[in-house]
Amino acid sequence: MFSLEGKVALVTGATGGIGAEIARALHRQGAKVALSGTRKEVLETLAAELEGALVAPANLSDPAAPAALVEQVEAAFGKLDILVNNAGFTRDGLAMRMADKDWSDVLEVDLTAPFRLARAAMRGMMKRRTGRIISIASIVGVTGNPGQANYAAAKAGLIGMSKSLAQELASRGITVNVVAPGFIATPMTDALNDQQKARLMERIPMGRMGEAADIAAAVAYLSSDEAGWVTGATHHVNGGMAMI
Amino acid sequence: MSDTADKVKKIVVEHLGVEEAKVTSEASFIDDLGADSLDTVELVMAFEEAFGVEIPDDAAEKITTVKDAIDYIEAQKAA
Question: Which NCBIfam families has this protein been placed in (chain B) (predicted)?
Fold first, then answer.
């Protein structure tokens, strides 16, 4: 079950904790993987683990980068079956103090780039009548979070975008879904202090932070042929922190 | 029949999976050939690729029949 043998997947933000684990999971299920991110050396280290992986560095704040990235993957592997929009970053601050650029930079990379990637990827998928577009959002895209108006807006935007694309592309066998992680142990959340972590833990019924593998498993499922009837859905993987 | 017309009709047959005989010059993609809005976008993209022309959105909207497509592409090629 859930075999991805013969499929080609592109994972953006594969330099991050969650992205790398997603790439590993898809590769384990048999997919050929293209790894994108801004730090080439980190991608190369990961590629050394994953036989046949393509290293495809890209700066997604460049408007031309998404289409070029999809083209590169299609040129290397002949097609793209699974797009995983995982790249994203935060620039937190209370709204009162949030500069326009903090807002627009986050929106550009976390929301606009995924749209451009999806638009570029859907062309080949439509022709082949099959495809998977999976975006990694966040629990805060649904619940909100003080200090993260920009990030939460971008992540909520991914959900709305995915539901629209899901309706546009369903008749072509393409599913479009979202995975919304809760608090995952990564370098991004390591930056929290102990007190912040303890307070977080009280809100997670499962009593632990999530692992990148918890997210990767959901992505692997949504990538599979078996998930062909799941579209426009947001999968919350958050240890019970928000039951929505 | 011109090469352009031949090629256009072939693309329509392939993309919409309709019988060649149904693809007359007057045939409307949506009303006669059963295309949906996504099909028409795909057709326009296929024409762009096959003929190396750019069909902007406002022009694409006016291409509703096989003849519209042939005329537009021939005009572009002549220009």
Answer: acyl_carrier (TIGR00517), PRK00982.1-2 (NF002148), PRK00982.1-3 (NF002149), PRK00982.1-4 (NF002150), PRK00982.1-5 (NF002151)
